[in-house]
Amino acid sequence: MKRVYNFSAGPSMLPEAVLKRAAAEMLNVNGTGQSAMEMSHRSANFLPIIENAEANLRKLMNISDEYAVLFLQGGAWTQFSMVPINLAGVEAGAERKNAAYIDTGIWAAKMGGEAAKYVNMRCAASSKAQGYTFIPAAPPPNSDDAFYAICYNNTIMGSAWQSPPETGAVPLVADISSCILSAPLDVSRFGLLFAGAQKNLGPAGCTIVIIKKELAGKAPSWTPEMLRYDTHIKEKSLFNTPPCYCIYVIGLVLEWLLEQGGVAEMRKRNIEKAAMLYDYIDNSPFYIAPVQKESRSLMNVRFAVREDDGEKRGQLEKRFIAEAENEGLVNLAGHRLAGGLRASIYNAMPLDGVKTLINFMDKFRR
Amino acid sequence: MKRVYNFSAGPSMLPEAVLKRAAAEMLNVNGTGQSAMEMSHRSANFLPIIENAEANLRKLMNISDEYAVLFLQGGAWTQFSMVPINLAGVEAGAERKNAAYIDTGIWAAKMGGEAAKYVNMRCAASSKAQGYTFIPAAPPPNSDDAFYAICYNNTIMGSAWQSPPETGAVPLVADISSCILSAPLDVSRFGLLFAGAQKNLGPAGCTIVIIKKELAGKAPSWTPEMLRYDTHIKEKSLFNTPPCYCIYVIGLVLEWLLEQGGVAEMRKRNIEKAAMLYDYIDNSPFYIAPVQKESRSLMNVRFAVREDDGEKRGQLEKRFIAEAENEGLVNLAGHRLAGGLRASIYNAMPLDGVKTLINFMDKFRR
Fold this sequence. Notes:
The structure is a homodimer. By secondary structure, chain A is an alpha/beta fold. Chain A has two domains: 5-10 and 262-365, Alpha-Beta Complex (Aspartate Aminotransferase, domain 1), CATH 3.90.1150; 16-259, 3-Layer(aba) Sandwich (Aspartate Aminotransferase, domain 2). In chain A, 34% of the residues lie in helices and 17% in strands. Chain A is built from nine helices and 14 strands. A seven-stranded mixed beta sheet of chain A has the order 2-10-9-8-5-3-4, with helices on both faces. In chain A, a hairpin with a 4-residue loop joins strand 6 and strand 7 (159-160). At the A-B interface, helix 1, helix 3 and helix 6 of A face helix 1, helix 3 and helix 6 of B.
């Protein structure tokens, strides 16, 4: 079988040039006689790999020295615990601090739920009652909020913040797993950003954390050592063995991004791809995109067959997914909690993939 | 540069056949048109990969259905927190439970130190005062110990338990990061085993946990969700996105192990390799192996130049490391906390690598 167009929400497509380079270097990278999987993480062979990855990420995202960049493990779920414990955790018996989040989808709600183990977590706004079809207006934080959390791009629901909410002196925390490096983002507006690698960055198993250094170092004494940001900042992500091979592939993806023209160019391409797909859907009597136009994600295009009879719609969508797969267009099912259809079109999805999808959609409609 | 013999303690050498297969399958694995890095972890493409890896690990280690096998993230360090929190953690304000560990080296001591955040941790025996040159006799646990922890193979110190201590009804917990699958091990003697993949199993970034199911489910309410064994058992390691590509490579290594004849064959080869190296050192007037014979590791052979003048020894060892590297024998320095020299000879190190090292050692001596 030839390579497919993979519309998975994550893990997802990687640039073919990156995969080819990883394959070519598998037994011997940078003339070391070793695979990037085999290198001691403290060796002179591996250090340039992690250091270059950090330098290139700083360059691409314009990250200042006020922030630490960490390569951790455990995905967004681990950050859901680390953020409240490190930014607002208290010693056993002490009074809990307050914090807030905006409920824009399943992941935002999970982040809020996990944080509630450690802080008084207030849901400041929600679009849940409207099926998460838009990003609600963000009320200002309370002055005693320890942090204010959002999920910048809602992978399941197909919505995204178009700009960060204003939170003044209260640190803004954002899960950017499914939009990191898809367009320019003003890092200085945030206290902490995190992203699992498996959507726009590389293989699953590495989490990027970008944290304003002044926010670290206040975790309570009961914090598991691996969940302390200060521990990882001090050791430059080498407190323990990091996910070396993931970091190596992330490094290849970052080099590819620089070669392509960086995030400004990605934004241009991503707008072109998403607009083409949304325009087709909006102008079709057969398909519908449920997310309000001003809240739509460039990365995860959620759509459905326009059909009121739920059972009939389900059957059509099932057939859509199966026939698409036969044509090499895979993973177009919506998330099990959202239903319908979804095309995740991250940086690595070429324009041709979107064009091929639209051609298929039109053929299926007829 | 051609492939080197890599004596790194971890990440470390992988079988060349595995690397070649991973390279060949990089753009298209199992005829899916996708890389193993690109697959949705819930797709019909990935599920056989993780299921086969689990089945083959169960076969190789003879793991019964009483135990769950998990593919987690975060390395041994994350287990140092998960073990005490899940097996002995209490709600805030409740009385702490007791547990014990045997101090056989740096990693065992770290495991004990981290556990002391959550339980009354008793050091039941230690060989620290003797430079960790042997495995001390293990006193029986107290009846109220929630668990009894050991580090089965001491990567830094070059020592290893030759059989598990008897702990009766108290669950025995062991870090087997640097000896998993190197020789048969009676899993039924243990309550919980864990191993970072980066030594004998695959790339860094995945941790294998083998846990008696009855031990899970008692974590206190403040436990970070990702640190709950019951969460991962319930979701068969797919609670969140697992380190898919690491699991894929681990699967290739496990298939390779089965082809080679399994752990009984590995034990035979590992004894042959280690005996050859220890014999050479013991019979040499120039080198010395500090660990007592009955406590020696098959995986990590610690040695030094036999020279009382510390400065002179340091210079000789520095020259040894540099000259060895020139001959393609890399990462022979001892751990920074132990000094001296160390050759880690995991399953993937061929007999020829050990022979080449001995030839070099003899040339260097002369």
